[in-house]
Amino acid sequence: MMSHIRTPQASEVLAPAKSAFAPMAEIFSNGVDDTDIHRLPACETPIPVTQPSLPPLEEFIPYLEKIWDSKILTNGGPFHQQFERALCEYLGVNHLALFSNGTLALVTALQALRITGEVITTPYSFVATAHSLLWNGIKPVFVDVDPRTLNMNPDRIEAAITPQTTAIMPVHCYGHPCDVDKIQKIADNYNLRVIYDAAHAFGVRDDEGSVLRHGDLSVLSFHATKVFNTFEGGAIICPDAKTKQRIDHLKNFGFVNETTVVAPGINGKMSEINAALGLLQLKRIDGILLKRREIDELYRQLLEGVPGIQCLSDAGEKVANYAYFPILVNDAYPVSRDELYERLKSAGVFARRYFYPLISDFPMYRGLHTAQKSNLPVASEAAEKVICLPMHPGLTNEQIHHVVQVVIGCKG
């Protein structure tokens, strides 16, 4: 029995899609014995947890030819400008600044708001979240996560606030929105800034529009592993033109004109090649999201009723992006999460234990008093129980069935 992560009620979990397929649990309960899992053949082609979605090369070549002809490779060229405008329109935001990657965007977002002292954040994320704080000389303060969504638990924030606290940095984990209203209310009460690490949340919408409009700033990643990629890339969603201008200066070494530098900026500019790919990817993204939704529905249908396997539910978003497919391996499952991970790998399925270890377990953080496992019981348990199954538009139904066959066929 899970001690900290409760099993949601039926109304809280995404309903499985109706289909002509029989539940896989029933199929394999009639046909797989204790030793069959060890005889499952590995796939001829390994199944990665993610795979970059790319357009046909012949569609990208005309963009490259324009770059070669213009000789403009960076510094806010025509594709960069077009991509910023097109992305604002697609995401439903007024201002954004493009970056060469999401980590530099996080670092710069903190600089843009002049954040110092302590920042409350989550241990259940990729290390870049907390690393961006250290790069700015800021002390991370970890708080536990919500047992249902695995996002920062707003009920744990106030107890972590000290006179040195200047901001909150939550993460929309797996693309599921945080409890933005509660977080903003706390921030307003204590005069704190809110910077969302929205690396997973491209295209996600709540009842009022894009989740990226919440907080003072939201930071996106366009890394190759993300739902929307530009090879490498990122962006900061800005509330107004003045903030965008400051960020644009900071990502260009602090220059405001040819001879004037106003801040110790960095080189965070997105290249023309990355921006060109982004423009082309925007034409394809709706189809990519649709395919991801279909894969999510098939997984949920096939895994329905498997003892010890819990498909994580959404967080009430109106439009999801299906960035990941995390499952929780409960004590009722015959083997541990780590054993399942190894058996999947032996069968040619390369799942990932997102997020293990916790950020707070790495050497540069474990000395912080808020990094102790006693302070983070839910996150600590999730780090030992959650595994993300392959999720990308290139997956075939046959591959998905193979993944599920391994999960269902595991015996102790």
Explain this structure:
The protein has 412 residues and is an alpha/beta fold. It has two domains: 10-52 and 285-409, Aspartate Aminotransferase, domain 1 (Alpha-Beta Complex); 57-282, Aspartate Aminotransferase, domain 2 (3-Layer(aba) Sandwich). Helix content is 34%, strand content 14%. Helix 5 (102-112) crosses helix 8 (241-250).
Give structural attributes:
single chain; 412 residues; alpha/beta; Aspartate Aminotransferase, domain 1; Aspartate Aminotransferase, domain 2; 13 helices
How would the blueprint of this fold be written?
Elements: H1 24-29, H2 36-39, E1 47-48, H3 57-70, H4 78-91, E2 95-99, H5 102-112, E3 118-121, H6 128-135, E4 139-142, E5 165-169, H7 180-190, E6 193-197, E7 205-206, E8 209-210, E9 217-221, E10 234-238, H8 241-250, E11 255-257, E12 260-261, H9 272-282, H10 285-303, E13 309-311, E14 325-329, H11 337-346, E15 349-350, H12 377-385, E16 386-389, H13 397-409
Parallel strand pairs: 1-15, 3-4, 3-5, 5-6, 6-9
Antiparallel strand pairs: 2-10, 7-8, 9-10, 11-12, 13-14, 14-16
